[in-house]
Amino acid sequence: MDDAILIVSPAETFTVRGLEMKLNEMGVNTQYSDIDIKRLKAIREDISLVILYTDNISDEHMEALVYMKDFCLENNSMIIVVGTQVEYEYIKKHIPQGEILNFYERPLVMNKLLEEIEEFFNRKEEYSKRKSILIVDDDVAYMTMIFDWLKDTYKVNIANSGMQAITWLAKNNVDLILLDYEMPITSGPQVLEMIRSEPASAGIPVIFLTGKADKESVERVMRLKPQGYLLKSTKKEDIIASVDNFFATG
Question: Mean pLDDT in the chain?
């Protein structure tokens, strides 16, 4: 199996070593790192899954958590969190829900985790055949909601800023971008301009997400010639139908 799993833990405990051994027996390559920014930056890029043990996690690990978040976003990796409920709530403040595959409370039931990992790799081949979508929005709650609506049908990635989206697109291709119109620092129109200035991304279809429904605002959006726009107030079933119809007729 070419894909690898990164196990991140404050220490390579007996449980961590046991998990590494079980995964190696399954034919999965593993790599270990403590929660240290320098060690994490040395990891290779073919990591499909990160297992994060959150023992005694605190603000001193924040830089490492932000790096893991960006790494997973840029490399289409997912995270499984193992820890206490309190630690998990802390993790969710720093890592978007869309990057978290599951949470396991300690003490860890190893067999359940191994079953999920096996299922994850079995699904990965089918998942790779799906149409891919990048959602770009600084409103993490809204972005996570749209992610949840689309994740069962599409390969969905997320970026919570325009520059994060541009960084992701430098390494990845996508079939559709759902782009927030109004964002701080780098607005949706500015992001669209950058996307279309790069040969590798110039042809990617873009549908704007906008919170304004007045005629002037809509005309301003459409002057940029996106493939369409969706109002943020649109109902779940209508957003799903709009995306389905785009791929059916595109």
Answer: 89
